[in-house]
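#random but structural
TW: two for the price of one
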Amino acid sequence: MPTVYITAPPEAADDIAKQLVDARLAACVNQFETTSTYRWEGDVHHDEEVILLAKTTGDASDDLVARVQELHPYDVPCIERFDECDVLESFAAWRADSVE
């Protein structure tokens, strides 16, 4: 079962997280404030962002990524999928029940 790592501006993060859970594309989305330093269009930027960790299923992950791309204000959002090697069985069952 994958976890999808997303970064978003603070003003968009809550909406993205809520819509993913409401649409049952994620069982849970954790949010962490962070500062990102990156190069964009030749300039170095230093911005406040929110890391979103969306717990989803393999079947729903493509739809989750597509939905994030629709909602996200960036032209090129950071969306990375991490597949788990080991997860608590009861957590995996809850997540699978929470995602359609």
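TW: number two ↓
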Amino acid sequence: MTEQEYLDRFRDETPRLRAWGEFVISEINNLLINEHGQTIYERWIKIPPTIRIKNESSLIAKAFILNRGWFSDIYNDITDKVGVRYVVGLTDQISSLTKLIERSDKWSESASKEFDDWKLADPRIFDYQSAHFILTSITPITYNDIEIPTGTKCEIQIRTLLQHAYAELSHDTLYKSNITSEPEVHRLFAKSMALMETTDDMLLRAQTSSLIALANLEEIKTQLKSANKQHLPSTVFSNKPRENDYLIDQLRPLIKENLPEELNSFLTRFSSTIAGRISTRKGTQPLFELEAITLVYYLAKRKRTSLPNYWPFERSILEGVYSDLGIAPPWSID
């Protein structure tokens, strides 16, 4: 096959390759949204996925110059004529997205031999934790009025944002320039790779801790709502989730695992007292409109001396809470 014959075949196939890439993006997006919802999709996907049709000069160079016998079939063995890249936030999202893709019955997936060989040969790359594989159509598909035959291939890459930044910069510098033998360049890229690997690990750990804290916050909110409904059925609380969440989060260090029992015990005794005070005060103090205000009353009674250390607002508000319960605030006692 001559270079011109190669290009003619590629140009004839390009509309089908483009359609297959667009179909792959559509299917993956649907898989993620159907499984986790639109909010998770928007949270995970940091760069909107697009298709990439291989540049003709790069294709010819790969097939006829850089091949060096690697491909047994210089046309069919080049599997990245069309590619799709997903850029996510953290490495655990790579694994989750990969599992969704593997469950689809629209294609067969296989490892990218080229990437695997490159990964083993070059320890400098930060991209080793990313996912690179080939999606091959298993039945004829019509998409956007274009017939996509069985066996059409698309390379898919899933990287984190940090991996994407490193891979793009290192590829441009190390592999598209004439300084590949400069030791200082490799040393600096190795240092930056190590730093980004550490950053990725720290971000993943921070996210895990954040999710645990969020689950705990949601549990407390549920317990508060249930207690308020039972003991303060006539009190109307405002729907201000950000303010409510903030107040609860600030007070969380004071909350123990036995909150439901303790809170119900407290409200059994004091609900009639605080119900009227909440209704009166919320007209001038918006904080008393929140579901979490009953938590504040509870902590004022149970954690009288500790509560001011975690209180994020003016003391005058907290002073009113103590007053409603008939107890002196700790700062007024010499």
